Amino acid sequence: MQFQMHGFTEEPIDALRQYGERRLQFALGRFHGRIRRVSMQLFGRGGSVAGVEPECQVSVYLIPSGHIVTLGMGDDLYAAIDWAAERSGRAVGRKLEID
Known about the structure:
Elements: E1 2-9, H1 13-28, E2 35-44, E3 55-62, E4 67-73, H2 77-98
Parallel strand pairs: 1-2
Antiparallel strand pairs: 2-3, 3-4
Helix pairs in contact: 1-2
């Protein structure tokens, strides 16, 4: 499973990358043979500012084709990553169960 991360954030990107990769590996690891690539994009600051919550968008590209996009929001980027990873795991499970 190939992992990519893009961030538009003021947080330390290396720490977020390691955390996101670990959370997504946990959430998606059982499907590793059916996943080509996972891409994570982060938007926002470390905490909620002026009503704008940090967001994490996860795109999972499946083998042989298809992809799933999920979005997580939270009080900080770590919470947004948690939510997006959990939603991604459930969505991939549902998709592969149907196929």
